[in-house]
Each structure stands twice: as C-alpha cells, then as structure tokens.
Amino acid sequence: MKYVVLVPDGAADRPLEGHGGLTPLEAARTPNMDFIAREGICGTAVTVPEGMPAGSDVANYSLLGYDPREFYSGRGPLEAASMGIELEPEQVAFRCNLVTEKEDVLADYSAGHITTPEARELIHALSERLDDAFTAFHPGVGYRHLLVLKGLKHLEDRCHPPHDVVGREIEGILPEGPGASRLNALMRLSRRILSEHPVNKRREAQGLPAANLIWPWGQGRTPSLPTFQEKYGLRGAIITAVDLLKGLGKLAGLEVVDVPGATGYYDTDYAAKAAYARECLRRLDLVYIHVEAPDEAGHEGNWQEKVTAIERVDELILGSLLDETVRSGEEFAFLLAPDHPTPLEVRTHVPDPVPFAIYFPQAVPDKCKAFNEKAVREGSFQGHAGWKLMEQLMGKAGGIRAGSSM
After folding, report:
1. Contact of 312 with 28, CB cutoff 8 Å
2. Per-domain residue ranges for the chain?
3. What digits encode the pLDDT tens for the residues 375-404?
4. 2-68+225-393: which CATH topology?
C-alpha cells in the first residue's frame, strides 16, 4: 500500500452571504476531491486542540500524526530545523516576518509578498548591523525569516502573529514579557535600517509596499519527536514550499523534497508538485503534500484566488495522482484535509474543525457525496481528533474500515 496525504492549507472557510451563502470549497469545481469523499469515509476533525494557537504549525503536527499537546514547542524552531540551524540550549528561535509599517500602523504582514532575492538583501543588511553574541538573523523564503536570540526568558514573551493584527496601530501590538525590551529595540533599529535600504527605495518608486520593519513571533526551542518511521513503520517524504513544514518534516525524519517552482503563493507550480510526488511514491511508502496558496488567499480576503487555488489543487495535484494509481495498478490510500480554516471574512486562522476524507481500496462509503464543509456533515465521523487521522489512514487504530466510531 502507498499513502498520500494532501493538505490544501487554509482551504476550509465559512459561508459568505456575498457569494450565495457558499464557501470557496462549495463553489470550486473539485471532481477529484468529490470522488475521494464519495468513495471514501468523511467527517470533521479538530486539528487545533482547545487552548492552542490556530496555526499551521499546530495543525500540521496533528495531520502528521503527532499530538500537538504533547510535542508542540513553537513555530520558530521548525523553521530553524528547515534551514539546518541547530539551536544551542540557551537559544530561542523566532519566526521573523518582513512587514510594512505605514503611519504607525501594521499595513501588510508580508510586505506585498516581497521576493526572496529582495528579502535576502534586507536580512543580510540587518545581520551585518545587528548580529552579535546574543542575536542572529537568518534569511528564509519570501517574507518569512528567522531570528535567533540567546536567553530562555524569551520563551515567555507574548508576540502577535502579524497576519492577525493587520490594520492595527503598532504601539498597541508590540511584544510584551521579560525579553520584550530587546525585541522592541530590534524592531526599532530594523525600521531605521530597512527604511533607507536601496531595495525599499526601489520598491517605493515602483509603487510596491516597503519591507520596512521586522516582526518576531512564534518563538520556541527544538522539539524532540519520534521519527515517522519509528512511529508508523513507513518511509515518507514531505513536499512543501513553506519552511516551517520543511522543518517539521525534517524533525519527523521525512525526506524533504525541494520542488522547482514551488513558491508558497498563487504562482506555485502545482503540476511540478504532483510530478515530484509521483516520483517519491515509486521509492517511498508515503508522501505528504502541502499547498500554501489557499491560505494566502484567505489572509488576503481574495475569494477568486482561493477558489482558483482549490481548483488547481484538485486538477493538477489530486487528479494527477489519481491517474497514477489507475496506471500503476498499485493500491493507494488517500487522506485529504485542510490543516485549519482561514475564512475570508476574518482573514486569519481559526480553530474550527476541518473537513476530511479518507479513501482506500475496499472502503465502504458513507453518506457524504462531496468534499466541502457542509457535505461532510453527512459523513460518519464528527469532531474527531486530528492527530489520529494518520493512524486511521493506515488502519493502525482499527474501526474505520468497519465503519464504527473513531
């Protein structure tokens, strides 16, 4: 048996009055997702346990089969692992966005989705001026970077995810806590350095948002995970353009596959992701495919881009992989689930349950006929713990094949 986990990040949503009371998943044309749901077993899953942050880090711990209440230790260390940065015992890793500040307001959490080459110039400029024995900047991809600070007091700092506070005055959303004075000082210094940088001068001349401020958040220390092979006895790979997912995959012992053209945005190469997934399945037991584009559309409140991203995942990734199963004649099992909802009306992650569908040979379908938030209410399982889905996919926990409660 081969296994495919497909995660359209943030694809789940809430009904929108301006679009006939539909969600993007309901409005999108998704014949392949609907096939998985119609021929498989469906329901809703809680990927963000109560009281935990509704982030892709927590939610993907769940979908990879790790209970985040046991293993989660922050977003920053996952990105550090992706970059090959080993944290020392006294170091804390923060996710560090390049953002746009305008008239003392956080105007854009991604600085207009600044390009990676531009962002690297800016991070290198910060590193040259601000790195010391206690501080280190590391360039990532697009607007997503890393700040490593020495001092465990920073674990207690309270920082807002920037995509949650767009449009608010900076002064009211600055970090707080025992290490906050250092963080706030670095933010002030970054504003001075970045505002005068040639990259931002060019962007402003072109009418683009300036990446004129850093925004640290999501701090933590390196978690200790059993490998995926130790936990499930399978060799697997992860395909994603997002550093935190690469880091989580690396810590789980999965092969991290870099796909040319995978950007983590609307222009990502969906077909290339499918091609690399097919190659992985010829060598390995499982491939975990994460697609960021629907989440980005949710953060931007962009209905059409979210619908389009979902349709591209359906056609270019899932459709391609279903074709592969028919051609190969080998048995495949699929788990299809967003990690969390990113509703267009609120433009941020919420901890609502997500729809899921599991398909495997000889599945006895339930009453669900399509893959969307409303249709899966006809499925067999509601409010299931998200971290148990991986076991169910593999039949490890029993029950799902017989149609009994999870």
Report:
1. no
2. 2-68+225-393, 87-220
3. 999 999 999 999 999 999 988 544 444 333
4. Alkaline Phosphatase, subunit A (3.40.720)
